[in-house]
Specification:
Two copies of one chain form a homodimer. Chain A is an alpha/beta fold. Chain A is about 40% helix and about 15% strand. Chain A is built from 13 helices and twelve strands. About 5% of the residues of chain A have low confidence. β2 of chain A pairs antiparallel with β2 of chain B.
Chain lengths: ~350, ~350
């Protein structure tokens, strides 16, 4: 297969000029474009579609793939937009544009990614919502496409990732509740195969075992990542014969519904059931009693993602000599009044 | 200038095949690609860069340009993500992908748009944050790029738009406050030249005049669209020698800061200063006293934008025979307890 390098050698032109001519850029004169097209035809040039748009300067665009859908972003999103802001702060130094690839929850993320790569308009990708086994990782790695994952996975292609500290969340939450006298502690988990669910549950089990406690299956509450999911978990807890006295939530929006679900059943969060929430989101700031939860610097997280991605991109890695970043992002506990002692 | 049509005629191939060959799509056999490239060279083909990626099927991507920045989306965004969800619901019927083009507030939106168009990866565009005079509109119209604006503008290129009912917001808010006995009513406005600010202020003035009242310049409070902006407006109000007894806010996030700003000065929203907010956002739902504000079906708004855009796109307009949509999107009043009678 004759590539762009061979065409450039044949014409004694730079690869960049040939690339611009083949890609129809306006900054190539007509005579050069004519020569390039003729030579490309005569030599049997075949573009490497997947690689074509994935080199420095060829698009100047980096895609951030996130999952959407009325279950996930129906009430907006306060997490990713803050991360994007940090990513952009870094990219703006390099004239790179961030575009957000909205993968609907109705669609298979693998299909979506393949289509995106075929469309070839991004130099590099940031993927999120990583699954336990995530074939997107192998797909991108095999094609040599620079990418970073927000979230770990069992699928390891020697790729960079940054993940939130779900172990720390589980350990800090459980330790704190046990210290206050709780023994029957529930945890939430995503309803799907998001890797964070596995990490969080494993860590919660380990933390409980450290105190001689167990996590019975009925105290693992699965829910969609929204207010209604939180409400349903509260109703499940309320209906239990032997209720937990405390819960640690792994999604920020569920806390809001959980509060409402308890109140609708005449229970008071913090007093009747201790609640430790996930992130101190803009909505969570308005909960009463104030939610004990975790603060994450999302802007800095976005900057970290961007820098770690640039460290993998041929045109930038000498300026970001970070190697393959694999980093657990810290979260700091914000003590509220939602996790009192057991009644 | 020889275009793609001439190359296709010369080879007796379809325009689609020639386009795919020139664009390096993998679904063209090598012999065909060779013939196309040779003919393109021999005939002096010059791609129409701006138009190239803006026909049906050529990219399958529609871009939604929104403004970001720590001032705007630093705490997330609950408006646009809900709109995107509606846009995607329509696009998914047609295998179109929505990508979000994040234009940082540090960047000139006109420059950003020109770069995006040059990158040519979208078939059509949705623009937002329309300004009073918005050169993006003429730019896109001149190039025949299908687009729709979320927001009106004085710049009229015969293009489609959908805008929120800022007149209705002003009129309903003012009428309601006047009926409760308020005579000295402040309004908020964006700090920049967003068109919505002009529409809202004009409408507020007209509504006040209808009651024999005026809007003195000191009661037009300008602020960035965030919590801190709302807080600063409250401090301004508190510091006035002759305070307004009521305010109508034109941004959803400012209500939260406005409440805080009043309370920090020992004033109670609803009792000391009546407040009518903009949208019933997820955060606003947690305000106490409950905020009198407006409900907007953002999912439906997204669907409306998508359908109106498809009505302008060559491959879709027969399925969406809507003509040039120019539509004021309704908002319905949600009565809370934040707009009592004057003290």
């Amino acid at each position: 297969m004759v590539g762009i390098r061979r065409v450039a050698q044949h014409l004694n032109l730079s690869i960049g000029t040939v690339s611009r001519a083949l890609n129809g850029r306006p900054d190539v004169n007509e005579e050069t474009r004519r020569r390039v097209l003729e030579a490309a035809g005569a030599l049997g040039y075949a573009p490497n579609q997947a690689g074509r748009a994935l080199r420095r300067g060829s698009t100047g665009v980096v895609g951030f793939m996130m999952q959407t859908g009325s279950e996930i972003t129906g009430d907006g999103d306060t997490f990713f937009m803050s991360v994007f802001d940090g990513v952009q702060a870094v990219f703006s130094r390099h004239n790179l544009d961030l575009v957000v690839l909205l993968c609907s929850s109705r669609e298979d993320p693998d299909d979506y990614l393949r289509r995106t790569v075929a469309r070839g308009f991004a130099d590099a990708l940031i993927i999120s919502a990583t699954r336990r086994e995530d074939s997107r990782i192998a797909y991108l790695a095999e094609r040599g496409i620079p990418f970073i994952a927000l979230g770990r996975s069992e699928t390891d292609a020697g790729h960079p990732w940054i993940d939130l500290d779900f172990e720390g969340l589980a350990r800090t939450g459980i330790d704190r509740l046990v210290a206050k006298g709780h023994r029957r502690i529930a945890v939430s988990a995503p309803a799907d195969d998001a890797n964070l669910g596995f990490v969080f549950l494993d860590s919660a089990r380990t933390a409980l075992e450290g105190h001689g406690l167990v996590l019975p299956p009925e105290l693992v509450l699965r829910s969609p990542p929204n207010e209604i999911g939180g409400y349903q978990m509260a109703r499940q807890v309320v209906a239990m014969e032997e209720r937990p006295t405390a819960i640690v939530l792994v999604n920020e929006t569920t806390a809001i519904g959980f509060y409402r679900g308890l109140r609708d059943a005449g229970l008071e969060p913090g007093r009747d059931i201790a609640v430790i929430g996930f992130r101190e989101s803009p909505q969570a700031k308005f909960l009463s009693p104030p939610l004990t939860c975790f603060r994450i610097d999302l802007h800095a997280l976005g900057e970290g993602l961007a820098e770690a991605l640039l460290a993998t991109m041929p045109g930038f890695q000498e300026r970001y000599p970070l190697g393959t970043v694999r980093r657990i992002w810290p979260m700091s506990l914000i003590t509220g009044e939602s996790d009192g002692i057991p009644r």
